[in-house]
Amino acid sequence: MEKYTYLLLNLLIIAIPFFWSFEKKVFFVRYWRGVFLGIAVMCLFFVPWGTWFVSKEVWGFNERFVTGSKIGNLPIEEVMFLITIPFACAFLYEVLNFYMPKPVLKPIQNKITGVLIFLSFILSIVFVDRLYTFTTFSLLSLFLIWHLLINRSEFLGQFYFLFILVQLPLFIVDGIRTGMFTGEPIIWYNNAENMGIRMITIPVEEIGYNMLMILIVITILEMFKVRSLTGALKFT
Q1: What are the residues whose beta carbons fall under 8 Å from the beta carbon of 29, sequence distance 6 or more?
Q2: pLDDT at position 96, please?
Q3: For residue 182, what pLDDT is reported?
Q4: Going along the chain, which residue ranges are E strands?
Q5: Of the candidates 142, 121, 125, 153, which has an alpha carbon nearest to the alpha carbon of residue 219?
Q6: What is the tens place of the pLDDT at every residue in 75-93?
Q7: Per-residue pLDDT tens for 114-145?
Q8: Element housing 3 (H / E)
Q9: With bands split at pLDDT 50, 70 and 90, how would you rate the model's confidence at 236?
Q10: How many helices (H) and strands (E) does the chain have?
Q11: How far, in Å, CA of 74 to CA of 222, rounded?
Q12: C-alpha pair distances (Å), 50 with each of 61, 71, 81, 207, 209
């Protein structure tokens, strides 16, 4: 049964958001097209990124915990992870929008964005020779600059609040993936390509990686919602 560990983790991640998508108040199923469009756009980048990193041995996968089915050199379970985590986070995002329509962090969202851009830029410069660190934080800083200066996104405050709320479940999930509870990791990381700083077993870069992954999906979802209302393809 060990080879189904990563598969079962993915199924557990998506189970509750999937079944609660049909709940009448939030009715998350109405946003599925936007969510899956966002996931598709994100995967167009993240799947090749992951494939490249496996080929460069930036990270790799323990065959003991995966079924062996692959897309390129990526286990199918890793591709599923790029679907289940954003789907669950998008579900929570819409729950927040329903029960907290006035985002508590909106008044300071630009300041938060500015701090994140600064920190990401500094990390990408200081660790320019570490492939995981450099690519993650340089791309995150560029995407946040676009949100702040070009798109002037109004939803970032709600996104940041969501991201704070999901840190504990993400920590548990990433802990399982990196061997915190299993003795051996499902996914291993080459410390020569990251800062070498771990949150127990989790590389600190995972915070930036997860933020970029989820923010791409939420951005496309917000675009989809505006398009549905106005018939025009635009961001909010």
Answers
A1: 21, 22
A2: 97
A3: 83
A4: 59-61, 70-71, 74-75, 187-189, 198-199, 202-203
A5: 153
A6: 999 999 999 999 999 999 9
A7: 999 999 999 999 999 999 999 999 999 999 99
A8: none
A9: very low
A10: 8, 6
A11: 29
A12: 11, 11, 12, 16, 11
In the chain, the amino acid numbered 9 is L
Q: Write out the H or E segment, with its range, that includes residue 9.
A: helix 5-19
- Residue showing tokens 């579900």: 91
Distance of CA 24 to the CA centre of its chain: 27
230 pLDDT band (50/70/90 cuts)? low
Q: Tell me the C-alpha distance between 74 and 82, whole Å.
A: 12
Answer whether 105's CB lies under 8 Å from 157's CB. Answer: yes
Q: What is the CA radius of gyration of the chain?
A: 18
Per-position b or e across 211-220, b if 16+ CB within 10 A of its CB: bbbbbbbbbb
> Whole-prediction pTM value?
0.95
**In the chain, what are the domain boundaries?**
2-102+156-230
Mean pLDDT of all residues belonging to the chain: 95
Parallel/antiparallel/unpaired status of strands 70-71 and 187-189: unpaired
The residue whose two tokens read 């990270």 is: 59
CA angle (223, 224, 230) in 5-degree steps? 90
- Structure token pair of residue 95: 């729950």
The DSSP-derived string for 39-79 is HHHHHHHHHHHHHHHHHTTSEEE-GGGS-S-EETTEEHHHH
- The span from the CA of 159 to the CA of 235, in Å, is 15
